[in-house]
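Input sequence (367 aa), recorded before submission:
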Amino acid sequence: MKTKILLLIPTLDRSGAEKQLTLLATGLAFEEFDVRVVALTRGGPYAKTLAEQGIDVQVLGKRFKFDPLTLSRLRRIIREWQPDILHSWLFAANTYGRLVAGKGKTPKIIVSERCVDSWKSRWQLWFDKKLIPRTHLLVGNSHSVADFYRQQGVPDRKLRVIYNGIDLPDAPVVTREKLFEELGLPEEARVVGFIGRLAPQKRVRDLAWTVELISNLQPHIHFVIIGDGPDRQQLETFARETQNTDRIHFLGHQPDPARFFPAIEVFWLASDFEGLSNSIMEAMAAGVPVVASDIPPNRELVVPQKTGYLVPVGDNVGRAKYTNILLEDKEQRAAFGQAAIARIRDQFSIPSMVAAYAKLYREVLTD
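Predicted structure, token format:
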């Protein structure tokens, strides 16, 4: 008899946790696992991907932070389908799942936390602590995430770490020259890039300041920003005020951001906090050196002086310094890029991630 896995997440938007859930759901062995996916609030691009792979997806239409109707719908699904494991992702799903499933032995409750959640308010952290007795295991996607929740009171016996998975990309389908033409970049441009949500956590304004600093050393510098979010208008205003609209390019949301990596020589990430950055992993998988903020999750990915550099949060001068070193040294860029590809291949593959979760499911069912 197959093991029934119910994967619960707030949405199926195109974002990091949603992508990892989709990779897991479509990667688990059909012969061993029967997988269903429930989105609390809405579907999204990954709902179509899951449906195309024959995975049942239900959307509950949550309207409020606390929505009794959604709780009732989720409770009915669990009662009728009787999953062996309820595996939830992110705060809302982790809370709703544990409230509905209760303290019983079935289904087993696994919660996935994807970030060092210093953004959480007191009431959210209070809820997390209150629900620890209803949690069989908490999985972090980095040791930094696990450490954060250990500090919130989750005992070691309930903590696990499973890294995100990512595939090495196929050969680029578009050349650097074609991308330059598409983006309207001059032939002599030196391109740095960022992929992610334009939100305060990401400190993209710091990256824009770095463009201003490094332009004295690299007069042909161009910064490509892929993504959207609440800070976009502020960032566009900043680019105008610093007269950098010709250097800073806002591409907005892109369905396939990785296609732009052939045009990017150095990848930037300045975040205050992360879980395990999918954008860093994607850059490394494409052989692009990374200059990132020196926070614990990034240390689990970037090997300084081997695959890139780490600088203190807010250190725009340091970021400019190391970016300049990489732009000036083609051989070092190539060596860092090859080391990055090898690191992703050896330690962060999708098959490794899926196999780790399958092993975890078997483990929790024998407790």
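Checked by second reader. The chain has a mean pLDDT of 94.
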